[in-house]
Structure formats: structure tokens, C-alpha cells
Amino acid sequence: MSQWSQVQQLEIKFLEQVDQFYDDNFPMEIRHLLAQWIESQDWEAASNNEAMATILLQNLLIQVDEQLERVSQEKNLLLIHNLKRIRKLLEGKYHGNPMHIAVIISNCLREERRILAAASMPVQGPLEKSLQSSVVSERQRNVEHKVSAIKNSAQMTDQDVKYLEDLQEEFDFRYKTIQSLEQSDKNSALIKQEMLALQAMLNTLDYKRKEVLSKIGRVIHEIDMLMSNLLTEELLDWKRRQQIACIGGPLHGGLDQLQNCFTLLAESLFQVRRQLEKMDELLTRLTYDGDPIPVQRPQLLEKVNFLLYNLFRNSFVVERQPCMPTHPQRPMVLKTLIQFTVKLRLLIKLPELNYQIRVKATIDNNRRFVLCGTHVKAMNMDESANGSLSVEFRHLQPKEMKSSAGSKGNEGPHMVTEELHSISFETQVCLYGLTINLETSSLPVVMISNVSQLPNAWASIIWYNLSTNDPQNLSFFNSPPAATLSQLLEVLSWQFSSYVGRGLNSEQLNMLAEKLMGQQVSYNDYQLSWAKFCKEHLPGKSFTFWVWLEAILDLIKKHILPLWIDGYIMGFVSKEKERILLKDKTPGTFLLRFSESNLGGITFTWVDQLENGDVTFHSVEPYNKGRLSALPFADILRDYKVIMADNVPENPLKYLYPDIPKDKAFGKHYSCQPNEVSKPSDGGGKGYVPSVFIPVSKILNDSTDPHSPSDLLPMSPSVYAVLREHLSPTVIETAVCCKFFHV
């Protein structure tokens, strides 16, 4: 079943998450129509290879053309129209930057896998629950309702101001008419009656002025209360969700809704400002003793300007945190002299500001680093699919100043990766007589000079964003706080779901908890130190917990990803636990687990039964990335042979735990059938028989005895004779000479 087919079967709450990341950058119609083709392409590799990305973009457009031809025959007018529009959009948007669409599609596929993994988990973690609580949803609806009510009130006040203006014009006309009469005419009874009517009209004007100012005051008060409470909470909540999403958590949404709220409030405040300007005009044409306008208007205008300043300052946000395109799953880790991207948005979307705001990017002022590349750009509404007022810096790169290079030799690896920096942005908005200076900053970033520092740098990013919602605590690692173990385990599961497409279940997380704490623990409220996570070596090992886990992630990503996504790798299980699981199983039942003693290693253990009925267990030496580069792991499982004393070599692996036939589990991942590889006609050039690696082990009668030096010598003649009887000479030679032959 394709990944897209699995997505379509999700519950509505997960489908809503999927809906959030499909837009005009990569329309869902294309994802749906080209599902299998899209999933069969290597978009992640293309995101770092312009030539490959160009070919994929061309092939994508060809696929769209083929779909257009098909729907044209079906005379589906709506789909024809949409596909033509989408094709034009894709070609125009990515023709000059094909790697950008590769990044987008790669991210979408990865996010789908994360959501599928989250849906398969029996229980949500504490962090994810807090981000999706009903209280948050209710507050979002409350904010939108109040903003809509404020907008309506401001528009109604517009009508009151217009009525007041009309009333005053009538008063002016009638008053000037009387003033133009001769003095003798002013004493007539009719004129006296008109004067009484004018007095009544002036009383009404005074009442309406007070009423309009009162309504304006109420609108201002409602905006003030909304900004001070609900809107501020909503913005902080979005920033927290962004933090969590950056370390692998659920995709954060809601920025478009916030933009709508900010824009409507700004429009309402500018509308109120115009109303106050109109009141000033009315004042210049007519005033009187007790006139409320000269008393109340200055205070109201000052409050409106103050709210506009605050609204604009809060609306300037980092929409997408700094990230190297070469490492999309590791944002906020920046390598010197390597380009990174970062995107900013002004949540107040007014047409008057398009291309009028120039943003300048700088790095924190410790003078150790500078930013090279285009660091001043104008915000516009043309580059974003949703028309937001934004700017994306794509060619920035940090450079270390030469004056500080001499200090690098004194820095340990942890000191480098625990040093936090900040990318700052500043601009100025000039609008309707207001000049507002805006500043914002990225979340703290870690600078590295070598990719070998990336794992520890990423650990720092995880710990910071898990432990605090303070966006600018650059001295955080002077005294890093402990983290709740239950939340840390949830984040570790996110590393697997976001990076390798499948999260960890409760049993796997329990094993990680035991490894961190050294014993079985109830980890709901347990506090874990930063040193325990990333700096102290595991007991009896030469590496830390995080280095061990990161090596496993790298192994999965590069060598065993399909098997991991299928859920056939138990992975995180101790030697003691694996024996408990296997002891009552059919002989030949095996499971796959990650090595606890070797970095980036995977092994398999199977259960066997001796002639006397005793159960025995065998574990093969772990396979690391070097060996898996030469032979796919699925082929190893298929072809693995064991020689028990002088017996016939055979594959002991029959059933994947608990009882899945091996070929049923891994058959689709085999590179070829074993009986095909030794035929001279199948690829053998110049008369040679094609060779194949065969992993072979020899197991002593007592498998618990240590190997002696004699065990490392070539096999005995009797064993070799048995092999020759069942395997071709070429296969034997390859197996004996290659490093996969274990004795």
C-alpha cells in the first residue's frame, strides 16, 4: 500500500494535520494524482543536487502533462482547469530553483511519515497533548470571534462618524444662513424659533460627539484587552509550537490565522485613527464650551498609536528558522561558510507595505562571526504561495572572524556545540505618518566548523527547545536545567519519526529509559541532567548515550530505512529481554536489535534447540555501515549460513519474531533471488561467473566458550568439503575472502 493510501485512511484529526502543509507550493491534487510516482523518487537527494532536481522537476511536469491528457479525454473540466493552473504555477515558481521543490516534497513526505507514525502510537506524549489541548483550540476560536466583533464595531462607528458629519454640515448651513440675515430680520419670531432649533441641534451634536468618542474608546479598550491577553497568549503558543516542530514534533500551524487577526486589528486601529482625524476636522469647523473632542481625542489618539506600535512589533516573526538546505531535519545548526535559509513574515498584511519594508540580517554582536551574502532584502507578497508579506534569505552564510580563530584550539567539542548565537533582523515601517522600528531574532543557533560536530550541536538544539520557551537565553548552557524524562523520550521518538519515518513504541522507549537511568524506572516525573544525556559516557563504554543513538539514526537512514519503516526491526531491546522473548518460540525465530556496545551496529539473535531439548541463543557480530554498504541487510538475512561443527551449512533464520515467515517479512526488499546470482549468463562478462557475498558463521558445540586463536584459522578440510558439495567454487572463494565470513 502506498504511503498516500495509508494517509487517506487516517482519522480526521490526523488528516487535518496533513491538510496544513499542502498549499500552492506543492498542491495536494498533484500529491494525489501522482502518489506512486512521487514516492518512488529520491527527493531528499535531489534537494542537495541541482542537476538531479532539474531532471525531477522536468519529469514532474511531464507527469502532469500526462494527467492533463488523461482528464481531457474524460472531459473533466474542473480538473483540467486546476491542472493547467498548477502546471503553470509549478513551472513558473521552480524553473530557476528546482532544488526548492525537491526540499518541499521531501519535507511533505517526511511529515506524512511522522503523522503516520504518530497515528500508530497508542498514546500521545505529554508535549503533544499540551500542544493539541481543547483549551488552546477554544482560545483560538475566541480570538477569531473577538477580532471579528471588533472589526464590526469599528465599521459601525464609521457610520456614526458619518452621521455626525452630516449633522454638523446641516448645523453649519443653518447657522450660517441665520448669520447672513440682516439684524432686523434676526428679531423676528421665525428666526427665534430657528435659533431654538439650532440650540437643540447643537445639543444633539454634543451628545453624538460624546457617543462617538465613547464608542471609539470602547473599540480601543477591546483591542487593548485582546492584544494584552488572548492574542499575546496565542502568539506565544505559536512560537512554542514552532520550537517543538523544529526538534521533530508535530507540524506547527496557525500562522495564517494569526496573520488574519493581526491584519484585521491593524485595519481596525487605522480605521479608528481616521475617525479621530475626522473628529479633529469637525473640531476645527465647530467648537463650544464643554466640547469633548479637545479633551478626549489626544488621549485616544495616543492610545491608538501605542497599540499600533505594539501590534507591529509583535507581528514581525521568524516564520521559518535558520536551516542549512543540506540538513533539513537539523534546523538551527549552521556550519561556517555554508549557506542557510531563513524566512520572516510581517503578520500585518497591508497592500501599502508591499516592497516598502527592507529587512537587514545580522548575527549577534560578539564580533566572532559575521554574515556573508545578501543580508538586506525587501518584504513582498509575491514570493509566498498564500500572498503573505514575507522575505526569505537564501544565500546567507556565517563566517568566523580571523581575530578569534586562535582561540579555537582551546575549545573542547562540547564547548563549541553549547555556545549559542542569534540571527537578528531589523527593519522600519513608515505608514500614515507613523514610523515604527521593528526587531526580531531567530531561536538560538549553534555554529559548527566541521560536520563531525553536528550530532552534539543538534543535541544542544534539542535540549534548549525542549527545556525552555525563552527565545533568547544565549547563556542557557552556563547552567542547563534538567529535563523531564517522559518529555525527553517523546522528543527522542520524534527524532525517529521525523528523520527515519517511524517513531518508537512504549517498549522501545522503556529500553531507552533503562539505558539512561541504568535500571527499570517509572519515568513519568524523573528528571534527567544534560550531562547524563550528552556528556557522560555510558557505563563501560567510550561514548555517550546521544552519540550512540545518533549513530543508530544514521545507520537506519542510510542502510536499513525500508525495514525500519515496515516495523520489522525491534531495535531497542536488551540482551536479557531478547532471550525472554525468544525462549518459548519455534527454533529459527529471530529478532533484530541495535548493538549496545558498537556504534551504529545492528545484529540478529535466533533461538535454537539442542538435541537434549535445551534452548540456546546465537547472536551474530553486529553489522555496521561499512559492511552494509557492501551488502544490503535484507540480502544478509536471506543468504546467511551457519556451519554447526561438520554439518551442512544452512540458514538458521526461519521466522521473524513473533512468528512471521522470513521471506514474507523481507522478500520485497531482496535485491535478487539467490538461485539467479550464480548463473554465467546473468551478467557474467567475458566468461566469468558473477560472484556474490555469502555471510557465513561457524558455531562451536559450546557457543558460550570463548574463541581461541585456532578458531580464527581457515576452516578444516572436512568443513571445506561440505561447502564444496553445496556451493559453487566462486561463491566459496568470495565468502572465504570477504569480511562477512565469521569463524
UniProtKB/TrEMBL annotation:
One of its GO terms (cellular component) is cytoplasm. Keywords: Acetylation, Activator, ADP-ribosylation, Coiled coil, Cytoplasm, DNA-binding, Isopeptide bond, Methylation, Nucleus, Phosphoprotein, SH2 domain, Transcription, Transcription regulation, Ubl conjugation. GO terms for biological process: cell surface receptor signaling pathway via JAK-STAT; defense response to virus; negative regulation of developmental process; regulation of apoptotic process; type I interferon-mediated signaling pathway; type II interferon-mediated signaling pathway. The keyword Metal-binding does not apply. Its main location: cytoplasm. It holds the Pfam family SH2. This is Signal transducer and activator of transcription. It comes from Podilymbus podiceps (Pied-billed grebe). The lineage of its organism: Eukaryota, Metazoa, Chordata, Craniata, Vertebrata.
